[in-house]
Amino acid sequence: MKKLLQNAVSLFVIVIVLLLFIPLNPFMLDILFIINISVSLIILLITMNIRESLEFSIFPSLLLITTLFRLGLNVSSTRLILTEKGSAGQVIAAFGSLVLRGNVVVGTIIFIIIVLVQFIVISKGAERVAEVAARFTLDAMPGKQMAIDADLNSGLITEEEAKTRRYKIQKEADFYGAMDGATKIVKGDAIMSIIITVINFGAGVIIGLVQSGMSFSDVLQVYSIATIGDGLVSQIPALLISTATGMIVTRAVSDGSLNTDVATQFLAQPQALMIGGAILALLAVVPGTPTFPLILISAMFLSLGIYVQRNMKMAIAHEAVGQDAQYVQEMPNEEDYYKDVNNIYPLLNVEPVEMEFGYSLIPLVDDAGGGKLINRIVIFRRQYAQDMGFVIPSIRLRDSASLNPNQYSIKVKGEVIASGEILVDYYLAIEPSELAGDVDGIETIEPAYGIPSKWILPENKELAEIYGYTVIDPLSVMVTHLSEVVSQHSYELLSRAEVLQLIENVKGNIPELIEEAFPNIISYSSFQKLLSNLLKEGVPIKDLVTIIETILDSASVTKDLDIITENIRVALKRTITRKFCEGGQMKVITLDAELEKVIVSSMAKSEHGVYLSLSPDVLQKVLLQVAENVKKFNDISLKPVILTSHVVRVYFYRLIEQFYPNVSVISFNEIANNVQIQSIGNIVL
After folding, report:
1. Are residues 74 and 121 in the same domain?
2. Which DSSP symbol is given to 391?
3. Are residues 124 and 240 part of one domain?
4. How many other CB atoms are there within 10 angstroms of residue 561's CB atom?
5. Which of 262, 311, 327, 411 has the fewest CB atoms within 10 Å, counting from its CB?
6. Is the bond leading into 519 cis (omega within 30 degrees of zero)?
7. What pTM, to 2 d.p., does this model score?
8. How far apart are the two ends of the chain, measured CA to CA in Å?
9. Residue 633 contacts by C-beta under 8 Å, 6 or more apart in sequence?
10. Can you tell me the distance from the alpha carbon of 267 to that of 304, in angstroms, rounded to the nearest whole number?
11. What is the CB-side half-sphere exposure of residue 165 using CA atoms within 13 A?
């Protein structure tokens, strides 16, 4: 029995299809007609009482089923009308007699009006509304997705809430797309009803005159009642379903059910009710107008308007008193508030990334006021995830009274990492290596890269570009600085939870690889350390499959994470090459062979691993030469790259990273074979 109930809809659809072929007796047809009208009425009532369209998301499917049901009943009733001399049950006879009332011409005209109202007004209107709603819903999807990302980035919603909202947007788009197609079914159903009515009447007249030998007046009386009754029995449910279709596609801007919305919004305008009542009272004075009905309805509108206006004033007064009382209750004493130890714990939370700004920078951040910072952060997070394979945590944005009005600061795990100042009404002009002319402005330093720059007025922007300056708007300056800081510290932001999420993502595609690697071959903490090593030097971790496979190959030989990291870098050599190669050529600084020998001989082991014990004079010479060679890259606007052998790469990087964090160190094994290496400097002893 339970299985039968679960498949009731499927069985019902099969029965509907069978109606097209299996004849029914008049009693069964009466029952099915009543069911059809009842179901259509229930569907209409549901659409009037839902708050939003997705509460009745099965409507497009129901629309198809009910339409097919009506057509099946039409075919069955047509079979009875034509074979039983117009006798197709009491329901059809009752509806036909009700409309005709003994006059075939008047009854036919009334029936045609009902059909045209259903076809031209309701079906056509519902089809147009559904088409526009579907197009606008699909067009608005990218903006809604960006709004969700912005709320997520600013901390207004959680990741779970963001997933729920994205799912709802997708379901809404699918629903309106389905409704756009479903309204075509309603239109086709209306056309088919007209065709079946014409066939019933025409064929009935022919059968009555030719086969049954009835007189023309008898044929007209019998078949007109049956035909119009059959048409009405079909058109009334179709009219209800068409109205329900129009209702459900117009629920986009509603906050409650139709009954609630109509009552709330009509009664929210008492002045309109009173003005309408006064106009009706004036019309009652005009000679020839129905005085009593106009005065009666005018009095109703005036009384209702006065009553609603008085209630609104009382509600506003009560609300003001309630708000004052609530405000007093919600202002606890600070000492009493922190007596509860649970209220202290929120003070211990540390955000992964925060950005604080002075009040003058609020227009750049405020989304409601046209600020674009949140949108730019969303774009940066998406681009960084695509490039590096790591999703940056949400960035908390907040204003701070402790900062200067034009100042902002960037925090990582609660500590200020970088700061800068922005002049909102100016442009930042970055000076080129060779100036073609000078532009008036306020001298400053570009915060992300430390390049000498000027804040210039908007009217000087074009002149600065002509002179070779790179002109940047204030928002881009702030976003660039934020992105650089986050990129440099991404290895700190890679949490254990994010690592587990990345592993789960791979597990969905290659579960066997994850089962083999974790936790038997490598622990989650060691894997997090390896990924952090790669991110620290700017190596993307997007190709997790290659990374895990390399770990499996290396783990059988060594457990040293530094060695495994170097093996992973070799496996990702195409990715590393792409980052530093330009036009098939890579410009690098090389290490002298003698220097590499000295570095190898100075390696010493401790309980914490291998370290370099270079003498201070050698270290000083190396650092001075690195500084001189790095300037050559600044002149050609490329990121500095030092090329070493595979053995010394990681140790040389650690030697210089605290002095030159923006310098990349790669080995010969990490360069693809099809790249031409050009040395523009050499570090020697």
Report:
1. yes
2. P
3. yes
4. 18
5. 327
6. yes
7. 0.53
8. 90
9. 587, 639, 640, 641, 680
10. 9
11. 19
